[in-house]
Amino acid sequence: MAVEVSSLIPVLHNIATRLRIDSVRSTTAAGSGHPTSCCSAAEIVAALFFHEMRFDPKHPESPDNDRFVLSKGHAAPILYAAWAEAGLFDRSELLKLRQIDSDLEGHPTPRLPFVDVATGSLGQGICAAIGIALDARRTESDCRTYVLLGDGESAEGSVWEAAEIGQYYRLGNLCAITDVNGLGQSRATLWGHDMEAFARRWSAFGWQAIVVDGHDLAALVDAFAAARRATDRPTMILARTIKGKGISFAEGRNGWHGRPLKKGDEEERALAELEAQFVPVERAADRPAPTLIQAPSRRAQRPAGVRPGSLAAPSYRVGDSIATREAYGNALVKLGEADPRIVVLDADVQNSTYSEKFAQVFAGRFYEHFIAEQAMLGAAMGLASRGAIAFPSTFACFLTRAADFIRMASISNLNVKLCGSHAGVSIGEDGPSQMGLEDLAMMRAQPTMTVLYPCDGVSTERLVEEMAYQPGPAYMRTSRPKTPVIYPAEERFPIGGSKVLRQGPDAAVTVVAAGITVFEALKAYDQLEQAGVAVRVIDAYSVQPIDASTLVASARQTRGRVVTVEDHYVNGGLGDAVAQALAGEGMVVHRLAVREIPRSGKPAELLDRFGISASHIVAAVRQLA
Amino acid sequence: MAVEVSSLIPVLHNIATRLRIDSVRSTTAAGSGHPTSCCSAAEIVAALFFHEMRFDPKHPESPDNDRFVLSKGHAAPILYAAWAEAGLFDRSELLKLRQIDSDLEGHPTPRLPFVDVATGSLGQGICAAIGIALDARRTESDCRTYVLLGDGESAEGSVWEAAEIGQYYRLGNLCAITDVNGLGQSRATLWGHDMEAFARRWSAFGWQAIVVDGHDLAALVDAFAAARRATDRPTMILARTIKGKGISFAEGRNGWHGRPLKKGDEEERALAELEAQFVPVERAADRPAPTLIQAPSRRAQRPAGVRPGSLAAPSYRVGDSIATREAYGNALVKLGEADPRIVVLDADVQNSTYSEKFAQVFAGRFYEHFIAEQAMLGAAMGLASRGAIAFPSTFACFLTRAADFIRMASISNLNVKLCGSHAGVSIGEDGPSQMGLEDLAMMRAQPTMTVLYPCDGVSTERLVEEMAYQPGPAYMRTSRPKTPVIYPAEERFPIGGSKVLRQGPDAAVTVVAAGITVFEALKAYDQLEQAGVAVRVIDAYSVQPIDASTLVASARQTRGRVVTVEDHYVNGGLGDAVAQALAGEGMVVHRLAVREIPRSGKPAELLDRFGISASHIVAAVRQLA
Lengths: 625, 625
What we know:
The structure is a homodimer. The first copy, chain A, is of the alpha/beta class. Helix content of chain A is 37%, strand content 15%. The first copy, chain A, is built from 21 helices and 19 strands. In chain A, helix 1 (5-30) crosses helix 4 and helix 10 (324-338) packs across helix 16 (457-469). Mean pLDDT of chain A is 95; it is low at 289-302.
């Protein structure tokens, strides 16, 4: 039962005023924050939350709610104020903003039930919103996705990646709004209030672009309606606003970014001005009638993280030869058959990562992102936030392109399951720009990240299944060359485990390898054995968490002598992981790893040139033994 | 003495054919590579190198040459073929493509004198070209910059960041060309041959957009002339091409990306077809008369890396209080006064990083990049490749946005001097999205990267000078809170050094800290001293290279007991650096670091909550001592 829009406008106006007041009060109480960035968006948020969006204010996690992403995450106080206004929690909570015991943090995180993905690194929210909108389509949900950007944020290339992907997938269920207040942190934005500059860009990228006065509630309501009517493409509402709107001495002035009003006079003046902006409304309309719950969608899926039951054992046999990247593709297909939540994303290298195997069978759950790794990660975050288990795949080196997204996915603790192929110098001739040599460091740095690095087809397949159902973000590193299958199909590979491949009571040194170097270590074992030197060889397929107990036990047996060998730069990878596991033991860890910028060449030549081939392992063992 | 264009066209046509033949022959010889991506660009490269560009083919490094960046780095074989055609080296060298003893690598690197920045990670070359064009303006050089992109590459957001920055700086000296062959690696590109889709976008972003048939040499020559006439904005020439052009069985077909022609029949058929495409030309015009050297520019600067003489000592006095980020800004100004090669870039946080201090004095050498960190890094790479010493600055966490650019800057070994402010949980209330907690891991992973982390104003200023003249990339981590000045102004801080702040013959444990944790370690020292426990405290301001000899000596004195403490996640930072320095010693390293996703709160609360405050150091020492 919709209320007439004309009678709602004054109600929404008063809500916007209350949102401004709450934003001022909470940031002043906190002594930090961005009240002026909230004030410019007050009418936008009021119109969205209390007229346009359909959601249950008592159950923000309901899958049928429309979704809202605050891409300009520094405006968090107005997001919190909106949920208080909607009745989710008491307004007094807002005064705990930014305190260590409150989840109302400086920028939104999914610690809050109404936040799908953490924002605060600009240009990411719109990428996540794409993923959320894609997930609504996947689950045949009618819910719509809204995302609010800042204008300065539009300088981020990721915004334009999202623009391309949004139009490619014709996401009519997505409505973005840019709060064009014309001021960045340090100065005017690139475009100031040149609304046509924005409109030209978004139109050129295939979106419905609508320019409105962002403080005109009726215009905003109309624009949202127009967005609903554009069912074949996403809409960008470009809202011309004033930063600090409603506070005369801050309005449109530079120098007010990220600055709360001072306690005392400054705050009091602002609040007095804002209080004076309330308008009388008819009593019946005082509380708006928004937030209608829509009809339930046809979602009927297992909650994320629940395993549908173990997959059949891999079909590879010991002695077969297959690249781990290809085994990854095969595993995705098996997993996709067993679980409809599995979705896969790629960035125009599906025929290299082998995600194409999944794409060929499950086209509706495969999302091509062309060469836009940031948008791919953002979409994976959005999909995962809504219940999908998302596998974005590309070359390991090109995941660095999305490092900031991986960081935010970790903060959000999402089920984003990354795969980086073509790891290390073992790719050969393409040269250093294509070699993932810092990916383990990047992934291990994130404390919530599981990091896996299988060496053969069987372990790859088993670990793809493990990572799918390990809660939170995970990373699998795959290799380009074919490698022999060394494990029987029934073998299990728990996360946090390792495999002792060679051992003996009289072993002098423990050699820890992973991925491609496992085979160098096995070669070294054979050479050393012929020379009468025994070593232990460990396949550390789980790099994070690493199997500390096995490593410690093994290293003790080899009198504290350990050699690590990895196709990765020396810092942040397997060697450091092993050293950390042994840190309390007073042991000697000798690292073999790539220590300089490599070059083109044949894989075997490069393994040898850069110090990680069997001969280097042999030499290192001989030095220690 | 210009040759008539009309008589040059058949000459250029034959050159294009030779470039195709060389691309086919070299990739077939290598057994890998991207011949079809070269063939689409043959006329573009022929027209550029043998009509449009002004350069000395025997001296590719000459500062007066026009510059060419191959943003689509996988077309490297045609770049090499062009330089062979121009006479820089013998054509027979091309057959060593991708061999370990040849600098003709799979993708271009600055090992070659005609390559300014390594390419091969798509979307970066155009960002670097912006920097090269900015540098030409800085040095008042008339040289022009050309950059060749692929069409698939245009999906990278960094391309649109570059588009914004290029138009903002009105770079009329920059001409980009997109080789629109319609095919990516795995499938058709997002836009195929929809030339208007490209033109709309580039026009909307303020560039002169010119659509041509990319195999029509006369049209290309005209388009380059039109680009020269647009002196107030950059030009994007959108060249419609056919992938594999000239080889009938590969032309415009999917599945030919990154695939050389097979030795034997396949190569022979292709070469026969190409040979048949030569046209007769008048003898006089057989060898074109391009590559005229232009008049020398007004460049008169010291070569990169040469220090103009030591700066005066810092003006801070022991006991003063200043944030290292502010001391960084002050140091930039001093450095800028002493050396005209110093340039500074920021991404709309100049009032947080304090790069604004430099901007206020040297506006002409400060480059605002709004919120576009990738473009900022790319421009820094371009500027550095031409002789500038470039300091791109932003929050440490947002440098992750440009991780792939940092990777490529390392491969290129450029004088890019990064500064990341707001490191760690000590920023306080803004929360995890704004906290740089993986920056040390990211930077340390790059083997050519110097990593510095000063704790006070004096060491910051000294280290800014050190990093400026240390060849290659470097990173400085600065902190948000003010810290006391602890070093006298005359103190020196060589890269690779450290400072032992507290010591005693009976010390039980070595405590290694850096940046903000130095002060926690000093507090812990005082508390422990009162309790009768002596420790050594080391300021490891040079995290990479780290001062292994001092660490080893100190740790031996404390009987192999070491505690590290850092405002960074546990993996990849100071703890790992110290552990690696001590790896051969059989010592016990106890790491204090952030081990989970942090949250908003006051700085002191967070240091304590996340285990890196003085009380945690005291506890760790007591456990070991």
